[in-house]
Structures are given as structure tokens and as C-alpha cells.
TrEMBL record:
InterPro entries: Ribosomal_bS6 (IPR000529), Ribosomal_bS6_sf (IPR035980), Ribosomal_S6_plastid/chlpt (IPR020814), Transl_elong_EF1B/ribsomal_bS6 (IPR014717). This is Small ribosomal subunit protein bS6. One of its GO terms (molecular function) is structural constituent of ribosome. Residues 92-145 are annotated as: Disordered. Binds together with bS18 to 16S ribosomal RNA. Keywords: Ribonucleoprotein, Ribosomal protein, RNA-binding, rRNA-binding. One of its GO terms (cellular component) is cytosolic small ribosomal subunit. It comes from Rubellimicrobium roseum. Belongs to the bacterial ribosomal protein bS6 family.
Length: 145
């Protein structure tokens, strides 16, 4: 059977348990139509780059499946009809990657860092040398008349 990866975004006002129940629900839709979910991941609530249906955030979920095309079509149809699902993306892949998705790997890296982990080991300000004088930038000034 063909291999697929699915990502969907659910409304932000759902609880985590409700979002995970959606993952299970759509997994059973695939199973009822002759497919199976290889793995699923709940990525959590993330901020979107633009509003969808007046929502700025959404619950992201990821499924890897081994299903016939008819099962995937039925699942997508039900997702598009479901009032809690805002967006759906399905991609056919040659093989599933081993281990967690890139999104989950990023989460693991973030949790392992300290409070300022993205800044690296920068030296203190005085060790980096003097700041350059930027001079007058020609902006608005009250003294000019």
C-alpha cells in the first residue's frame, strides 16, 4: 500500500485531550477503510503565520499512514467537513523516516537548552570591542527651526 504523511491544524480553543482525540478519530477512519496509522504525533499549539477562520493559533497533529488511496480520500473528506479542523495537508512519500519528525526533534532541542540557548556562547559586551559611533542620522529634531 502507498505511504502517506498527513498534517492537520485544529482550532485553538480545543483542549489538548480533544485535539489528541481527533488524531485517534481520524486514525480509526483510516483503519475502517483498510489502512493503518504507522505513527502519530501531537505537536501542540503553535502560532500560525496568518489568521485562519479568525484563529491566530492552532493544534498541530502529524500522522504517518500505510493506506489505500480510497481510505486517505475518505479521511480527508471527513477532515474537511469536521468543524474543528481548519487545514489538512497530505503528502505521498516513498518511505517513512525512522524516529520522530523534524518538528519533534526541534522541540527536544529546545527543551534541552537553557533560557538563552539560541544566543550561543557570546562574550560579554566589554569583550566584543567598542561600538561604532553612528553619528547624526538626520532624523527629526526639535532644535531645528
Amino acid at each position: 500500500m502507498p505511504l502517506y504523511e498527513h498534517v492537520f491544524i485544529a482550532r485553538q480553543d480545543l483542549s489538548n485531550a480533544q485535539a489528541e482525540a481527533l488524531i485517534e478519530h481520524f486514525g480509526t477512519v483510516l483503519a475502517d477503510n483498510g489502512g493503518k496509522v504507522v505513527t502519530n504525533e501531537y505537536w501542540g499549539v503553535k502560532t500560525m503565520s496568518y489568521k485562519i477562520n479568525k484563529n491566530r493559533k492552532g493544534h498541530y497533529a502529524f500522522l504517518r499512514s500505510d493506506s489505500p488511496a480510497a481510505a486517505v480520500t475518505e479521511m480527508e473528506r471527513l477532515m474537511r467537513l469536521h468543524e474543528d479542523v481548519m487545514r489538512v495537508l497530505t503528502i505521498k512519500v516513498e518511505k517513512h523516516e525512522d524516529g520522530p519528525s523534524v518538528q519533534m526533534q526541534k522541540r527536544d532541542e529546545r527543551e534541552g537548552r537553557g533560557d538563552r540557548g539560541d544566543r550561543g556562547d557570546r562574550p560579554p559586551r566589554e569583550d566584543r570591542g567598542p561600538r561604532e559611533d553612528r553619528g547624526d542620522r538626520g532624523g527629526f529634531s526639535r532644535d531645528r527651526r
